[in-house]
Write a structure and sequence with these properties.
The protein is mainly α. Helix content is 80%, strand content 0%. Helix 1 runs antiparallel to helix 2.
Length: 59
């Protein structure tokens, strides 16, 4: 999950502007912390699949 979010933030920064770097990094760090704290490990695979499927259908 960390790798997915790290890659997403890198892609967002590459397609947007550099000023997003700090703001986006803070958002992703908070998401990663919340995922670790509130999402049972057994749900991580389903969440990863949902994120990947969402990314596949985005234009």
């Amino acid at each position: 999950m960390k790798a997915i979010t790290d890659n997403l933030i890198a892609a967002e920064i590459a397609t947007q502007e550099q000023y997003l770097l700090e703001e986006s990094a803070q958002t992703i760090q908070k998401l990663q912390e919340n995922l670790h704290q509130y999402t049972p490990i057994g749900d991580h695979l389903g969440l990863a699949e949902a994120i990947i499927n969402q990314l596949k259908t985005q234009k």
